[in-house]
Design a protein that fits this description.
The protein contains twelve helices and 14 strands. It is α/β, with parallel strands linked by helices. The protein has two domains: about 180 residues, Rossmann fold (3-Layer(aba) Sandwich); about 130 residues, Rossmann fold. A seven-stranded mixed β-sheet has the order 3-2-4-5-7-6-12, with helices on both faces. It has a five-stranded mixed β-sheet with strand order 9-11-10-13-14, with helices on both faces. Helix 2 links the parallel strand 2 and strand 3. Helix 3 runs parallel beside helix 4 and helix 9 crosses helix 10.
Length: about 325
């Protein structure tokens, strides 16, 4: 075991995959000489050269379009969106092209490509640097969408994403980059995409979360443990495909379920998780499935008081847990 931060886990895993497979490439804004705005690719261009570490212009549609071409030509490209918000100009390439090439070619062509997206609020990034974009992409068959939030999960799932034969949206929550630390197993271990993970056992209520909200929920669960309320916390970590079996099993264990996500509550990924539980575990529920998400604001505010009001936090999550436990 080696202790790492989340951003170290991304850097180290990319480095290992670059050294393991010379088809792996990365392209994006400032990924080369600058080493990435978050320093994820620091030193890469010196070791692997400009033919595998491509500094691209401010044109996200071109970044993803070129990555699709490279994938079709037999490479394993990683397209970095400097911030997830910047992926909207590339939406056509991701959704209309990458997600549908296997279908439209009757299975003859795949697009083994990863689109890395630093996402989420909590860093005073405001508009264009703080959005939650997972629901946009998780809606689309043909894409895989994962949001691991611990160093071990990032390591195992990033390896799987790079080696996957189809396009993967890989979400990395910026606010956890240097704030979250954890042990990473030695060796070439992978974590299958499409799997959730029970991060904390509990008997009274079950909470489902991903990204930064996972860590907030774990803190809230610790608070409630001191009040005699036992909270299970499930890290969804894969939004497409969802691990329906694990989600339903853990929902049935307690019969009281809360889904927490920082995206706008309406039509967010949490709505799909809640619907799955309501359909598949209805007979075992002792309360309606609850959701707690962000407000109906077009964007995350810049100033600290308003951003704090926008974001679910451990204290407010703990109160939602109390409300559900008392139902």
């Amino acid at each position: 075991m080696v202790e790492k931060t989340n951003v170290q886990a991304v850097h180290d895993t990319l480095l290992e995959e670059f050294r393991r497979d010379d088809r792996v490439m990365i392209l994006g804004e400032d990924v080369g000489k600058r080493g990435g705005v978050f320093r994820v690719t620091d030193g890469f261009i010196e070791e692997f050269g400009p033919h595998r570490v491509l500094d691209m212009p401010l044109a996200e549609a071109s970044i993803v379009g070129v990555a699709i071409g490279l994938a079709l030509a037999g490479f394993r490209p990683i397209a970095e969106m400097q911030f997830a918000d910047f992926s909207t100009p590339a939406f056509d390439q991701i959704v209309q092209e990458a997600a549908r090439i296997r279908y439209r070619s009757n299975g003859q062509w795949g697009v083994p490509m990863v689109v890395r997206m630093p996402w989420g609020a909590g860093v005073r990034g405001a508009l264009y640097h703080s959005q939650s974009v997972e629901a946009f992409y998780a809606h689309v068959p043909g894409l895989k969408v994962v949001a691991p939030s611990t160093p071990a999960d990032i390591t195992g799932m990033l390896r799987s994403a790079i080696r996957d034969p189809d396009p993967v949206i890989f979400l990395e929550h910026k606010a956890t980059y240097r704030a979250v630390r954890g042990d990473v197993p030695d060796g070439d271990q992978t974590i299958p995409l499409g799997t959730a993970d029970l991060k904390r056992e509990g008997t009274d209520i079950t909470v489902f979360a991903y990204g930064l909200m996972l860590h907030h929920c774990l803190r809230a669960a610790e608070t409630l443990a001191g009040e005699g309320i036992s909270v299970a916390v499930v890290d969804v970590r894969s939004l497409r495909p969802l691990d329906a079996a694990t989600i339903v099993r853990e929902a049935r264990r307690t019969g009281k379920c809360l889904v927490v996500y920082e995206d706008n509550r309406m039509f967010g990924a949490g709505a799909e998780i809640a619907a799955l539980i309501a359909e598949e575990a209805f007979d075992d529920l002792d309360a309606p499935v609850m959701r707690y998400g962000g407000p109906e604001s077009p964007a995350t505010p810049f100033n600290k008081p308003q951003e704090d009001a926008f974001m679910p936090d451990p204290e407010r999550i703990a109160q939602k847990m109390r409300d559900l436990a008392a139902y």
